[in-house]
Design a protein that fits this description.
The protein has 3 helices and no strands. By secondary structure, it is an all-alpha fold.
């Protein structure tokens, strides 16, 4: 407890010593007021102006940053929309090209089948015509051979024993 008593006595003595000389207190108060006035006149306004300018600059930068963020968001939205439209258009073009290719494929296949049928029919006609020509030639040869055999029979050069030989001989010579 002794320590607290000593501290309390020291504080009391310090306060009493301050108020013993009123002229010093008045001078200190006057100096403090003058100092406050000087600080207010010469330093307060420039510091306040500096802080206001700094606040305005920060506000402007924050506004510009927010505006730029909005602009970036808008551009991102526009680009996303444009990208989606381009994808949709590309998908439509792809589907259209696939459809057109399928149509062209079907057309080519149909044309090829028609051309093949036409050629087969032409070959059939050519074969039929060639068969007819060959048939006519064979008939003509048969007539010639028959006529020659009949002529030999009529002239009595052929007998029953040599008729087969004579016919074979005539066929060989006509072919």
């Amino acid at each position: 407890m002794n320590i607290f008593k000593e501290i309390s006595d020291a504080i009391q003595e310090g306060l009493n010593s301050i108020f013993e000389r009123w002229d010093l207190i008045l001078w200190q108060i006057a100096a403090t007021i003058i100092l406050i006035i000087i600080v207010r006149i010469f330093l307060w306004k420039p510091i306040t102006r500096y802080l206001e300018k700094r606040q305005e600059a920060l506000s402007k930068e924050l506004y510009e940053a927010a505006h730029e963020r909005e602009r970036v968001t808008q551009i991102r939205y526009e680009l996303q929309t444009e990208y989606e439209e381009m994808r949709k258009e590309a998908r439509q073009m792809k589907d259209s090209l696939i459809y057109e290719a399928q149509q062209e494929k079907d057309r080519i296949i149909t044309e090829a089948r028609n051309e093949a049928k036409r050629r087969i029919q032409q070959v059939d006609r050519d074969i039929q015509q060639e068969l007819k020509i060959q048939s006519d030639k064979i008939k003509e040869r048969i007539k010639e051979i028959a006529f020659d055999v009949a002529e030999k029979i009529v002239t009595h050069d052929v007998t029953e024993e040599n008729i087969d030989e004579t016919i074979e001989e005539m066929i060989d010579t006509k072919l």
